[in-house]
Amino acid sequence: MTAELLDGRATSSTIRQEVKAEAEQLKAQHDVVPGLATVLVGGDPASKTYVSMKERQCEQAGMRAFGRHLPADISQEELLGEIEALNADPGVHGILVQLPLPDHLDEDQTLAAIDLDKDVDGFHPLNIARLTLQDVEPTFAPCMPLGCIELLDRYDVDIKGKEAVVLGPTNIVGLPTALLLLHRGAALNVCHPHTEDLAGISRRADILVAAIDEPRMVKGDWVKPGAAVIDVGWGRVKDETAEKGYRVVGNVDFDQVKEVAGHITPVPGGTGPMTIAMLLQNTLLSAKRSVGA
Ligand code: GUN
Question: Of 4, 92, 222, 231, which residue is least crowded by CB atoms under 10 Å?
């Protein structure tokens, strides 16, 4: 292996300790404990797992978790009422609505109902719009994209002036990551899955972000030697040799790409753990802003 590992597990652990220390300081100096409300509608198993991880890590970082677990058949009006109540609650500094919502609920309207000052997930339409403007800051940027940038920063990977390629313009990760890279001075190429010659375009990248939802799609010969490769994919592929009969992989063929890249995120243990660390960091930031700290 020639690439240095962008270790999301270790980095997120460091960040969560930093957040915990700052949360303790905030409590001591301002008598404020950062609070995160997690809104989960219905019982989708993956969403339940994500939300319980967020709540657990929130409490481990010395913050309060307010779980709002709502029935799958809740009406739009009732859901908006829950969000209004959380907006008005001074103990809640961050509100996260776990996506996707059941089909009968309006995702845009729901996200738009969150108080901008508590939008620690960064999915409020106005915050997404602000990301598209120069010299205008969102109140919060989305967590997985922030986590990608944070990993590059913590491993001293230069962004300014470099060529970045983002494969997959997804709303939650690809597009906002692309915009954050652009704001940091990278030249940008965002590719749709149907873009011709994805391999050739990828080979130009100093920073390659794979958000294309195709297991192990990015091969060794797609990567410029020395590039930083960020994999935001997560999926299971069958593997008889693995204990569970499957293996968790990302969008990058790790075994091939690690021999070419300069830096690479593993899956699991790369961008995934960073997402929750950034959520905690955003919640702490919101609590600090609430007291002018
Ligand atoms: N569903 C998948 N990823 C996310 C995330 O980062 N935040 C929310 N709210 N829902 C998600």
Answer: 4
